[in-house]
Amino acid sequence: MSKSLLELTPVQAVACCSPVTRDPLSAEAAERIAPLVKAIADPVRLRLLSLVSSHADGEACVCDLNDAFDLSQPTISHHLKLLHEAGLLEREKRGVWVYYRVNAGALSDLATLLGGVTA
């Protein structure tokens, strides 16, 4: 079996892990999950995720998000691309625009992974 068949995306890695409060993460699981957590650790990306999720019909295009930031459209698109690559956003091209929506399953899996964490 090739190595590529055994590799999991960050979202798949989160989905198959038990909550961190129940069992410690293995080093391998932590390595696979870190890119997902890293993707939302940036304030711009965290806001984008929130804006897309709360937008009408749960989806938005870059043109809908530009005014919320003092950033160029290419910079916003770059952050959206990183969220998509991490598996947190799904996208669909319609004409010249790309529309993004939150991957609810990925957020649910991430919440489950971190579930039960209290201060």
UniProtKB/TrEMBL annotation:
Tree of life domain: Bacteria
Ranges for domain HTH arsR-type: 25-119
The top of its lineage is:
Bacteria, Bacillati, Actinomycetota, Actinomycetes, Propionibacteriales
Alphabetically list the UniProt keywords: DNA-binding, Transcription, Transcription regulation
Organism of provenance? Nocardioides terrae
Pfam families the UniProt entry points to:
HTH_5 (PF01022)
UniProt protein name: ArsR family transcriptional regulator
User: What does the record give under GO molecular function?
Assistant: DNA binding; DNA-binding transcription factor activity
